[in-house]
Amino acid sequence: MRILLIEDNRRLAQSLARGLSCEGFDLDVFETGHEGAGAFSSLHYDAVVLDLGLPDQDGLEVLGALRSKRAGVPILILTARDSIESRVAGLDAGADDYLVKPFAMRELAARMRAMLRRPGQPLATLLKIGNTQLNSAYRQVTVDNSVVHFSLRELKALELLMRREGQVISKILLEDNLNGLSKNTSQNSIEVLIFRLRRRLEHCGSDCSIHTLHGIGYLIKER
């Protein structure tokens, strides 16, 4: 799951990136509302963690801007504003959840997972195609009930494809989800990754078949 974090406290942002990474999330971090809203417009994010005390504009204004672009993306406000009035204002403005600093990393991760499990959100725990099942909570793949080991990038690609079974996933969307804003990847890295993933699935006897639509993207379906 790729998360957009808009937080101007660099030390806290770095701590969040490390902590949520250990919980299975990938973060892109921005310090201003303007930068965060720009990234939100150009990349696919599964959820947003938003600070209210930003240096360039109030977080509630940023919240409104994000909601106007994609209404269904879960947004959690993470702030030091702990009054009842602030909480009500944030939730009424469109936030899905509200967590006051200081907080426990485990609670934040649990709240993120809870938001993403809600109807219409992408974090179904179990994904299954034929004899192949992926448990996204434990990052485990089984084929005919036997555990099969994949690299982290292979797991991420497989999860994205399985969540959109039968739908074409563009190379750009795969790059955005796997690499985020990092540009330290070769142009053919996605092709190599899909090749390895396809070969591993075939080798373990999986019913999943990855198809390449040249110039368009990839899709996965049962053989």
Summarize this, please?
The chain has helices spanning about 10-20, 35-40, 60-70, 85-90, 105-115, 150-165, 170-180, 190-205; strands at about 1-5, 25-30, 45-50, 75-80, 95-100, 125-130, 130-135, 140-145, 145-150, 170, 210-215, 215-220. It is about 40% helix and about 25% strand. Helix 1 links the parallel strand 1 and strand 2.
By secondary-structure content and strand pairing, the structural class works out as: alpha/beta
- The SSE string, one letter per element, is EHEHEHEHEHEEEEHEHHEE
CATH class of the largest domain: Alpha Beta
Q: Strand content of the residues, in percent?
A: 15-25%
User: How many E-type strands?
Assistant: 12
Q: For the report, how would you describe the main beta sheet?
A: 5 strands, parallel
Q: Residue share in helices?
A: 40-55%
CATH domain topology of the largest domain: Rossmann fold
Q: Evaluate the radius of gyration.
A: 19 Å
Number of domains: 2
Please, what is the oligomeric state?
single chain
Specify the overall morphology: elongated
Alpha carbon gap, first and last residue: 27 Å
Low-confidence blocks of residues: none
The CATH homologous superfamily name of the largest domain equals Response regulator
The CATH architecture of the largest domain can be named as: 3-Layer(aba) Sandwich
Q: Mean pLDDT score, rounded? A: 88
| Tally of DSSP helical segments | 8
Q: What keywords describe this structure?
A:
2 domains, Rossmann fold, 8 helices, five-stranded parallel sheet, alpha/beta, 223 residues, single chain, elongated
